[in-house]
Design goal:
Elements: E1 4-12, H1 18-34, E2 39-47, E3 55-62, H2 69-76, H3 80-88, E4 91-104, E5 112-120, H4 123-139, E6 144-154, E7 160-166, H5 175-180, H6 184-190, E8 193-206
Antiparallel strand pairs: 1-3, 1-4, 2-3, 2-8, 4-6, 5-7, 5-8, 6-7
């Protein structure tokens, strides 16, 4: 257990005009959260894989703060503008996670994030493979900056989440990536996976 949690929110504007949606998100919604020092950062991303939901927001938050009355009051007392936007959104999918492991490092703003969720019959084996083989191989690829692993605490989705910070999706075409994702151990580990999702997002804006 670490002192950090992740708040991950997927959204689609629905019939809210995109300019209005982004203005609300960038200039009201995120800044209200950044007023709390417990919100260590806040980043918004847009889809780089043409999948839905189109938008994703990620916040690193001090562990336990999302359960406090201070944060609860913020969520309960929406402005009329925010309430009007939220009611029209096609998707608002909120999930919280606890951090398991962080490897590598990200200096400056993120560029692209690969979000991989998995549920496995052998969770311990999946985590061991990440730590002992998969992450070390990925971090040898130039431009593969950081890998963080999380466990779902609240919301929908797979039990485990890996967030990869990379410079460019073109890394998926390299020989190094193909080698890292073609090992016999990987195949054995994935045979126990019962749910899996994968998304790629491009950086849009920072709250701080």
């Amino acid at each position: 257990m670490t002192d950090q949690e992740l708040l991950l929110v997927y959204s689609d504007p629905g019939d809210v005009p995109l300019e209005k949606f982004n203005d609300w998100y960038d200039n009201e919604h995120v800044p209200l959260r950044m007023q709390f020092p417990e919100f260590r950062n806040g980043f918004r991303f847009t889809s780089a894989d043409d999948e839905r939901p189109q938008w994703m927001a990620a916040y690193d938050v001090e562990a336990g703060f999302l359960d406090t009355d201070r944060y609860g009051r913020l969520r309960a007392n929406r402005s009329p503008r925010e309430q009007g936007v939220v009611e029209r959104l096609a998707t608002l999918d909120r999930r919280t996670y606890e951090l398991i492991r962080e490897s590598g490092g990200l200096h400056g703003l993120p560029r692209y994030q690969v979000i991989v969720g998995m549920t496995s019959r052998d969770e311990a084996g999946l985590l061991d493979w990440y730590a002992e083989e998969h992450i070390p191989l990925l971090l040898q690829i130039p431009g593969w900056r950081r890998v963080r692993q999380f466990r779902l605490r609240e919301g929908s989705g797979e039990a485990l989440l890996a967030i990869h910070d990379i410079d460019d999706p073109a890394l998926f075409d390299t020989a190094e990536w193909k080698a890292a994702t073609s090992t016999s151990r990987r195949a054995a580990v994935l045979s126990a996976v019962t749910q899996r999702s994968r998304r790629v997002f491009r950086f849009h804006n920072s709250g701080r």
